[in-house]
Amino acid sequence: MAVRREDSVRAVRRALDLLAAINGSRGATVPELVRDSGIPRPTVLRLLATLAEAGYVLRTGRRWEVTPGVARLASGFNFDTWLAATSAPILLELLGKVGWPSDVMMLGGAEIHVRASNRPQCGVAIEANFQGMRSPLADSASGRAYLAWCPEAERRRLIALCVPRAQERAVLRELDATRVRGYGLRDAALKPPVGAIAVPVMLGASVACVLDLVFLPRVEPVERIAARCLGPLREAAAGLSAAFATLHQAAPVRPADAPSGTPGQDGTAC
């Protein structure tokens, strides 16, 4: 009997779901896969045999694990292209709501870097040469948002890297204030005199990236910016969180659900 097209497509999707489940759990038994996938046991066994024959999984005792062959499936993945395509509509919608430019910031060593931005679409020119701009973690809005909501062990490691010991207590106090406030705030002493607020984009208990909003304090003070723009900024962060969750097969977390509470080539920070 010929296999219907919809049946063959469903088999492919089920095989990919099983492969993702085994990879995400670092190994699983057949009963666990049946329970978590909802796929009948005979089908699970048949799909596992097919994946094993293709070199993607192997059996160790009662557990099935992925092989190094799965790395081939991601070898052509370009993260920067994915981030640009994923964040572009979110950043454009955010710009339409708030009128000020925003950046997607990601950790790089002891700094946080611009990885995507809506500055080219914004009529307000704030550091138009934003490509590759970086911010210090302890003083920028985005860096403070990252440190405030990242796991404690990571926070301790990063603070040890980028903060002189004599300043650690002051930085920790600012991070406490950041969690209470609900967003990172750029140190007003930094030059040039631009303002920024930032919220984390959560991936489970970790920070996937940070979304900032850059403005001119002489045009709109930070209090008004926070009152007017924090809601849309959090909504945009939630959209990015959902995208990262899909990419990593994790649960998205809104910044508001996290624990309560313009960078330049020369280190100028947002």
UniProtKB/TrEMBL annotation:
Residues annotated as domain HTH iclR-type: 9-68
Keyword entries, A-Z: DNA-binding, Transcription, Transcription regulation
Pfam families: HTH_IclR, IclR_C
SUPFAM superfamilies: GAF domain-like, Winged helix' DNA-binding domain
InterPro entries assigned to the protein according to its UniProt record, in alphabetical order: GAF-like_dom_sf (IPR029016), HTH_MetabolicPath_Reg (IPR050707), Tscrpt_reg_IclR_C (IPR014757), Tscrpt_reg_IclR_N (IPR005471), WH-like_DNA-bd_sf (IPR036388), WH_DNA-bd_sf (IPR036390)
IclR-ED domain: residues covered: 69-246
Protein name: Helix-turn-helix domain-containing protein
Species classification: Bacteria, Pseudomonadati, Pseudomonadota, Alphaproteobacteria, Acetobacterales
